[in-house]
Amino acid sequence: MKTLAIIPARYASTRFPGKPLVDINGKSMIRRVFEQVNHANLVNQVIVATDDQRIYDHVIAFGGTAMMTSSEHPSGTDRCGAVALQFSDFQTIINVQGDEPFIPPKMIDQLIDSFQKAKDAQIGTLVKKIDDQDDLFSPHVVKSVFDKDGKALYFSRQAIPFQQGVEVGAWLKNHDYYRHIGMYIFDRKTLLELIKLPSGILEQKEKLEQLRWLENGYSISIGITEYESKGIDTPEDLEGI
After folding, report:
1. C or N terminus of the chain, fewer CB within 10 Å?
2. Are 50 and 10 in contact (CB under 8 A)?
3. How far apart are CA 200 and CA 207, in angstroms?
4. What pTM does this model have?
5. Structural domain tally of the chain?
6. CATH number for the domain that contains residue 27
7. In which domain, by residue range, is 60 found?
8. Omega into 161 within 30° of 0, i.e. cis?
9. Per-residue pLDDT for the chain (241 aa), expressed as one digit of tens each?
């Protein structure tokens, strides 16, 4: 199956305006993301989806492919859907965050491979085992639980599952917990359905878009990865790079 990788990139950001164009050791962040994704063996085409002319012009200037999308899109998923509408020859669409300049190409290939092997796959994503207790209890680290067949049951900013009768400090020793990696792959038909869904109650409470999909009965296949990727959310995240 042909896979189209889309990198949503907005200029406006509350915590880091202009983030896609920030220089990281001689290359912009969006160029680094584009090049990393382009090195994935199972990706057939890469497109930056933006609502800003500066980002569009920059991507074209370094030889990349970009598409202008509406500034009214509320999420990266909606931006990906707008691009997917124009590319009917791709069966699968992958949404790669535009603030992951060091994302391993092998992680992207793993997501695509696990999705293609999953039975009746609609949506796919990755998780990684949590080894640090601070991560387990941080609301900024999204946790996932899934069934025996690798289908997501729930995502939460809380540590799930709760362990009745076990001291909190022993939770990691007593059970495997997984952090969610915010990268998604979609069956094209499913993606075009998802962008029509209204916001869900669980999504509003947790501020996690994927809960909207679960609330509406969509299946999310989970793959377990050993790869790491450092996202850039604030200017401080660039210190020491």
Report:
1. C
2. yes
3. 10
4. 0.92
5. 1
6. 3.90.550.10
7. 3-231
8. yes
9. 799 999 999 887 767 778 899 999 999 999 999 999 999 999 999 999 999 999 999 999 999 999 999 988 889 999 999 999 999 999 999 999 999 999 999 999 999 999 998 888 899 999 999 999 999 999 999 999 999 999 999 999 999 999 999 999 999 999 999 999 999 999 999 999 999 999 999 999 999 999 999 999 999 999 999 998 877 777 677 776 7
